[in-house]
Amino acid sequence: MLEIYLLLNYMNLFLIILMTNSKRKSKYNIKETRKRTLITSVGLITINSTSDIDKETKEYYVPSRDILHLKPYQRLTNEA
User: CA nearest 62: which of 51, 76, 72?
Assistant: First the structure.
């Protein structure tokens, strides 16, 4: 249970730091932030996930999906 709590806190802290990063803010606009539940090897975790829009190309970017190497709508992590 402690592993889930630590992983959850780490992911949410990392995403907060990423959201406030000035380089990210200069390239992307945050479109939305929502909770996302993932199935991991240590159990279910719920993280805050943001969707961004590139200011120049208008393409969507989801940092948490990129960091965790997830495909769109994928709930099961690769390690689970």
Answer: 51
Among 2, 4, 79, CA closest to 43: 4
H/E run at residue 51:
strand 43-54
pLDDT digits (tens, 9 = 90+) for 10-62: 777 887 787 788 888 899 998 998 999 988 887 888 888 889 999 999 999 99
Q: Are 30 and 50 in contact (CB under 8 A)?
A: yes
pTM of the model: 0.71
Residue that the structure tokens 């495909």 belong to: 71
Q: Which two tokens stand for residue 61?
A: 């970017």
Alpha-carbon span 30 to 18, nearest angstrom:
11
CB atoms within 10 A of CB 52: 20
